[in-house]
Structure formats: structure tokens, C-alpha cells
Specification:
about 220 residues; alpha/beta; Rossmann fold; 6-stranded mixed β-sheet; 4-stranded antiparallel β-sheet; binds adenosine-5'-triphosphate; binds magnesium ion
């Protein structure tokens, strides 16, 4: 489903060029759960933003289902992000003045779900990730970290994306809650054949995914 070929990314900064990614090559099949590990500054977030068409490569290519992301117009890239990708971030990035339910309803709106079915669909998604009737009415500040991340996952899967990109989704959670979030992502990838690429620093978690890429100084050093 995903093919990354000779991908490089260089940032030009006043202090000189930073080679964030150097000649990255890998392929991921549909439904696979891939973890990315590596030290701070090794290029993990840069790689995820390329995969999410949030930034463009300096050279090389990223193909999703045979389509080269760099060849899409900016409008097609926006549509790729909205329809094909679900993002989950370390900081959850929920909208603070909307309830959990409204956060997910908004994502459904962007994805083109009709107004009449948004509430029921958002409720179903939030229950699927383990929130109850009361919790879904609360604003993010009144939910625990693990619950907020569940809302973020419900939002990410709202439009049935083929690919979920998660940047340290459990970085703010205790290890037990983090494990539960990963189990939830795992279940999703199995039940809906969703491809998941998740950055983690937890080696136990990485060991349980289908494939692990280790980044070092912008290069993939191990593929398992
Ligand atoms: N917009 C940018 N401009 C300049 N340099 C950047 C930019 N974004 C990232 N970098 C540099 O590219 C390298 C890789 O950064 P990246 O954010 O991908 O690392 P990371 O592996 O996600 O680290 P962390 O674990 O701390 O999140 C670092 O040296 C970083 O300073
Ligand atoms: Mg990062």
C-alpha cells in the first residue's frame, strides 16, 4: 500500500543544512501495524509528516496505492489528508471548547458525513474506543489523558482512513494506559484492515507490532 523510495529531506536553516532523512526505503502492506523507534532528532516526525503529505520530500518518492504524493496538486493533497489519513498526536490536539462528541462530529463533517447521521456515528465511534454516555458529553479538560487519546483515536478513524499516522500517541500516558491505547490501535488495524504507522519509544510496544523501523540520524538502521 505504501512504498517509500530513496526519500531524503533536508531543511535549510540559517545555521546550515539539516539532513533530517537520508535515503529511506521501505514498503508497508495494507493492514500492517508498523512502529518507528529512534532517538530524539532521528527524523521520526519528519517521516510522518512526509507520509501525511504535510511536507514535501527534497528527493525520492512516497507512493500510496501507486500514487506519488508529490505529484498531487495541493487540492488533491488536502483531499488525501482528509480521506485517506487519520492523525493521532502525542498531545491529542482536541478542540478544548468542544465536547468529545462534538470533536468527533466535526471530523465527520469535514469528511462529508450528512448532518443527520453525525451524532449517532460519533457516539458509536466513541463507544467503540471505550467511552461511556457521560464521558462523551465532556470537554477534553474533564477527561483523563487516556480518555482524551481515545477521543483522538475515534476522531482519527471517523472517516475510515486507510492509513493512521500516530506520533508518540502514548508519550503522555502511563505505561499501562499506553499499552491499552496500542491494543486499541492494533484491534482497529485487524478489524478494518487499516495500516498504522506509530512512533513510540516503548520497546515492549514496538516488539508487538508487525514491523519495526529504527531511525538513526535520518537513516533506517534496522527493519524487523
Ligand atoms: N522545520 C524544520 N526546520 C529545520 N530543521 C528541522 C525542522 N524539523 C525538524 N528539523 C530537524 O530535523 C531533525 C529531525 O527532526 P524530527 O522532528 O523528525 O525528529 P524526531 O525523531 O521526531 O525527534 P523527537 O523524538 O524529539 O520528536 C532534527 O535535527 C530537527 O532539528
Ligand atoms: Mg518527533
Amino acid at each position: 500500500m505504501l512504498a517509500v523510495k530513496n526519500l531524503t529531506k533536508t531543511f535549510n536553516t540559517p545555521g546550515g543544512d539539516v539532513m533530517a532523512l537520508r535515503d529511506i526505503n521501505f514498503a508497508v502492506d495494507r493492514g500492517q501495524f508498523v512502529s518507528i523507534i529512534g532517538k530524539s532528532g532521528s527524523g521520526k516526525s519528519t517521516l510522518l509528516s512526509m507520509l501525511g503529505a504535510l511536507d514535501t520530500p527534497t528527493s525520492g518518492s512516497l507512493e500510496v496505492d501507486g500514487v506519488d504524493l508529490a505529484k498531487l496538486s495541493s487540492r488533491q493533497q488536502t483531499s488525501y489528508r482528509a480521506k485517506t489519513i487519520g492523525f493521532v498526536f502525542q498531545q491529542y490536539n482536541l478542540i478544548p471548547n468542544l465536547s468529545a462528541l462534538e470533536n468527533v462530529m466535526l471530523a465527520l463533517e469535514f469528511g462529508g458525513t450528512k448532518p443527520a447521521s453525525r451524532r449517532d456515528e460519533a457516539t458509536r465511534l466513541l463507544k467503540q474506543v471505550g467511552l461511556d454516555e457521560q464521558e462523551i458529553q465532556r470537554k477534553p479538560t474533564r477527561l483523563s489523558g487516556g480518555q482524551q487519546q481515545r477521543v483522538a483515536i475515534a476522531r482519527a478513524i471517523a472517516n475510515s482512513p486507510a492509513l493512521i499516522l500516530a506520533d508518540e500517541p502514548t508519550g503522555n500516558l502511563d505505561s499501562e494506559t499506553g499499552q491499552k491505547i496500542f491494543d486499541l490501535l492494533h484491534k482497529l488495524s485487524r478489524s478494518k484492515n487499516t495500516t498504522i504507522i506509530a512512533v513510540t519509544h516503548d520497546l515492549d510496544i514496538a516488539g508487538k507490532t508487525d514491523k519495526t523501523f529504527m531511525l538513526k540520524d535520518g537513516k533506517i538502521t534496522t527493519k524487523q
